[in-house]
């Protein structure tokens, strides 16, 4: 009973930390479903609940070949209709306040930026400026093997108080659990499991 109560309390504390976080980070190895999860989150939760959001990929940001991440983000979201990220962030924060819902910026695949060392420094500066604006949140995904070395500072001060890190369970599944997960994918994507080897 004590173990179960402790576990329930830890889960509740985690849920409160997620709600309060301004920066949410999901890590996992390649092929674990991070991008699928994020796409599902956008399509089946954020849009359905009319939560304002934008989805960008590390690869798309990299293609702009800009040295200022904040400028790249505001150009991608507002297509040049704002002069700087501060103006874009103010508009997004005001819109989110009016909707009484946060604006969620999703950057999927941090590790897919081709200048990852430069990008990690830009990301820190970007998040510092983002958290100055209320009602803005950012959801990041990254391969776990790149995260600590390149983006680990996001879990340390001064970012730690704003950040929630969810590292995916990378231990090997027991065969039964693995089969159950695989069948769940087949069912979701309406694939006939017996036709696939």
Percent helix, as a range, is 40-55%
Mean pLDDT over all positions: 86
Total E-strand runs: 5
Structural class: alpha/beta
Rg, Å, rounded = 18 Å
Poorly predicted sequence stretches spanning 5 or more consecutive residues:
none
What order do the helices and strands follow?
Answer: HEHEHHHEHEHEH
Count the DSSP helices.
8
Euclidean distance between termini CA atoms = 43 Å
Walk across the major sheet and give the strand order.
2-3-4-1-5
Strand percentage lies at 15-25%
Main sheet properties: 5 strands, parallel
Shape: globular
Structural commentary:
By secondary structure, the chain is an alpha/beta fold. Helices cover 51% and strands 15% of the residues. It has eight helices and five strands. It has helices at residues 2-20, 34-46, 58-64, 69-78, 85-99, 116-130, 144-151, 175-188; strands at 23-28, 53-57, 103-108, 136-143, 163-167. It has a five-stranded parallel β-sheet with strand order 2-3-4-1-5, with helices on both faces. Helix 6 links the parallel strand 3 (103-108) and strand 4. The longest helix is centred in the first third of the chain and has 19 residues, at 2-20. The protein is globular. The model has no long low-confidence stretch (mean pLDDT 86).
